[in-house]
Amino acid sequence: MIDFLLSGDAIMALLTLTFLEIILGIDNIVFISIAANKLPEHQRAKATNIGLLLAMVQRIILLFFVSFLVGLKEPFYTIETSWLHIAISGQAIILFLGGLFLIYKSTSEIREKVETPSHDEDEIKGKKINTLSQAITQIVIIDFIFSIDSILTAVGMTNGLHPNHNYALVLMIIAVVISIGIMITFANPIRNFINAHPSMQILGLAFLILIGFMLITEAAHLSHTSFFGQTVGAVPKGYLYFAIAFSLLVEFINFKIQKGKVSKK
C-alpha cells in the first residue's frame, strides 16, 4: 500500500485530483456560504464547518459504494454480432454512464455560467432557512448534488492505477479529505482567487469533459469492445496528466501576461 501511494502515478493522481476537487468545489463553497449567511452571525462558521465535515463523510460513503460497483468486473451479458463484440459488466456500465454524466454536467455548467451565471445562487437565496439544523440539512443536500461529478472524477483519475481497486479507493479518500480540509481552512481566499480568475473554473469543467470521454473509452476497453475486429485500447493516465498540466501552464502564463498589462497601466 505505502509503495503504491508513494509511486509517481499515485502522487500525480492525488495532486491532480485534489486540485480538481478544490476548483470544482468553488460553487459548493459559494452555495454553502449563501445558506449559512441566512443564520445569525455567531452560527455561520459553525454551520459551514459542520456542513463540510458531513459532506466529507457523505462523499467517503459514496466512494465506497461507487468503488464496490466499479469492482464488479465479471461480464453478465455479452453482445456478439458479425461486427460488434461487447462483454457488459457492472464496471463498464458505471464507467460509461459516469462518463456521459460528466460530459453532460460539464457542458451544462459551462453554458449556465455563460448565459445565466446567478441562476443557482438566486434559487438558493429564495429558500427559507431559520435554524442551524435547517442550514446544515440544506448544505448536505447541496453537497450531495455536487459530489456526484466529484466522485466520478475521482474514479476516472484513479481507475486502473492498481489491480487492487481498494488501493485506488484509499487514494480517492485521501484526496477528498485533503480537498475538504483545504476548503474549510482557505474557503475565502480560494473563492476570491476564482472570482478574480473565473477562467480557472471553466478550465476545471473542461477537464471534466476530458475525463468523461476517458471514462467512456475505458468502459469500452474493459468490456473488450471491438468494432469490425478493431478493439478499443486503454488511454494511458499520463496523457491526461500531461493535458491538464499543459493547460494549467498556459493559464499561468496568461495570468502573468494579464498581470503585467495591469501593472503597466
From TrEMBL:
Its main location: membrane. PANTHER family: MEMBRANE BOUND PREDICTED REDOX MODULATOR, SLL1022 PROTEIN. Keywords: Membrane, Transmembrane, Transmembrane helix. Coiled coil: none annotated. The keyword Membrane applies. The chain crosses the membrane at residues 12-35, 47-70, 82-104, 135-155, 167-190, 202-219, 239-257. InterPro entries: Integral_membrane_TerC (IPR005496). Belongs to the TerC family. It is found in: Membrane. It comes from the Bacteria. It is a multi-pass membrane protein. This is Membrane protein. One of its GO terms (cellular component) is membrane.
